[in-house]
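WARN retry 2 of 3 for item q-0093 after timeout on previous attempt; input resubmitted unchanged.
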Amino acid sequence: METTKCLIIGSGPAGYTAAIYASRADLKPIVYQGMEPGGQLTTTTEIDNFPGYPEGVEGPKMMEDLQKQAERFGADIRWGMVSEIDTTERPFKVKVDDGTELLAETVIVATGATAKYLGLESEQKFKGGGVSACATCDGFFYKGKDVAVVGGGDTAAEEATYLANLCRKVYLIHRRDQLRASKAMQNKVLNTANIEVLWNHEVKEIVGVEQGFTKALNGAILVNNKTGEEQKINIDGFFVAIGHKPNTNLFFGKLDMDETGYLITKPDSTATNVPGIFAAGDVQDKHYRQAITAAGTGAMAAIEAERFLG
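OK item q-0093 returned
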C-alpha cells in the first residue's frame, strides 16, 4: 500500500499553500484536488485583493499559478476525491474514489466551504457577471453603483454595511419582517442611510444582458410574499449572504466540529482533536473566508505537520 508523510485533502489557496510549504520541508505531500480543483476561487472572475498581483488576476489563473508553484517543489497533485478516512490510528488509512488506498502519517484537511445560493437558474447564469457570495472579495467592482444583498443574518448585515461604504445604494432583501442578525448588526443596518431593507420579499429572478460569453446583470425581480406583488429593482451587483456549508461530511463523528459543521482547531493552531490531523482554510474559518487567510492557515498547517513528524 502506498504511504505518504503528508496527505493534503483539497486544492484551494489553503491546500496549495500547504503543499508548497510541505514540499519545501521535504514531506513529499500528496494532494487530492477534490470535486472542484482550485476551490471557490475558480468561479471568481477577477481577484484584486491578493498580494502579488498588482493588476489583479483571474481566479482560475491564480489557482493554476499556486498549483504550478507547489509542483515545482515536488508536490504530487492528483485528480480525485477522498471518500473514506480512518482517524482512529496512525498512519491514517485513506480511500480515494478511484479505489486507491494509502497510509498517511499526517493529514491536512483543506476541503473548504461551499456558499449557499438561492437555487435560481438565472442566479447560476450570472455568477461572475454580477452575482457574488462575497462582498469583501467583489464589492470594490461596484463602487458608486446600486447593489442588493439577500439574507437576514449577521453575514447579510455585515455584507450590506460593508457595501454601503462603497456603493451608492444597497437593497437588503429579506423574506421575513425582521432580521435574524444580532441587535448590534441590526442597528447598523437600520441606521445606515443608503441601505434600504425590503421586508417580506423573495427573489424570483435575476435579469441582465447577455452578449456572447459576456453576461452582466442589471436587475432583480422580487415578490412580496405577503401580497404577491412583484417589483423590479435596478442593480449592478447581487450578493447572496445566506450562509456557507463547510465541506466536512467526510469527518462527521471523526473530528470535532461546531454545530454548523466547521472543524474546530486548537487555539493559535491548525491542529484538530486528532493528533496528526490539521485543518486549514474555510473548512475551519467561518469569520474571514478570504483567499489570503486560507493561504496563511495552509502554511501554518504544513509547518505544524512538519514539527509533528519531528
